[in-house]
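During the reporting period the student researcher (J.K.) took over the structure-prediction task from the postdoctoral fellow and processed the backlog of single-chain submissions. One of the processed entries is reproduced below for the supervisory committee.
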Amino acid sequence: MSSSPSCQNQSKADLRSRSSLLAWFATALTAGHTVYAFLIPPTVAFRDNDLARIIAWHLPCAWITTILVLAMGFFGVRALFKPSVRDFARLEATTELAVLFAAMTLLTGILFSRVQWGAFWQWDPRQTSFLFLFFLMAAALALRAGFGDSEKRDQVSAAYAAALTLPALFLIFVFPRLPQVQSFHPKQAGFDSVYWLAITGGLVAYGLWTQVLLVRRIALGVAERTPKSHKEDENDDSNRGNRTSDPVVRPVSL
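J.K. obtained the following structure tokens:
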């Protein structure tokens, strides 16, 4: 049994309220993380120990990208076998945010490479594999833009996301760790507890922002996929429920 329009409106209002509160909390946490990351002392075992603090932004973005890529594959498979408006909207939201955080990972990685290794791009295996991953995810957005029909676009996007899962896992976890692959990235980073706190704080802060953006983007995606006639029916029912009597007076013949 479907809920009444008044209950749906109340649910949407509660969702917006919780999302706004979470956004304020994420803003405060992000500001605190930024200040803390600049105040911690320089680390050791790097070419420029002071600027190694870039890792406090780089690693959280990389980890969140990995989580979003796995979410893309999950929602893609789920939407293929059990299509639903909400899962298509979830897939669209996770794809857009995965591309965003992958771009942030590449940008901070390029800065780290310039500071620590002397060049913006070293063709390091981890750099290269992540660049390929970024292209694969960006291709998902390009693929969506290539279809005018929304249903066809969602179906093709779901199939692409499902097919992307195995190559993404290979590029993230397997290729950089192959024995024959030599990387500038250290096997074990020499970070103390102060730096790990900065990295963990960044993961929590940007994870909260990911949740806020996902909730709002999914809600927008669901609204975009809801038939216009259905929305109008809900509005009509809501308006009829608010009227106590018919304001129009009509003549009656006797």
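The committee noted the following: The two ends are 44 Å apart (CA to CA).
J.K. will present the remaining backlog at the next meeting.
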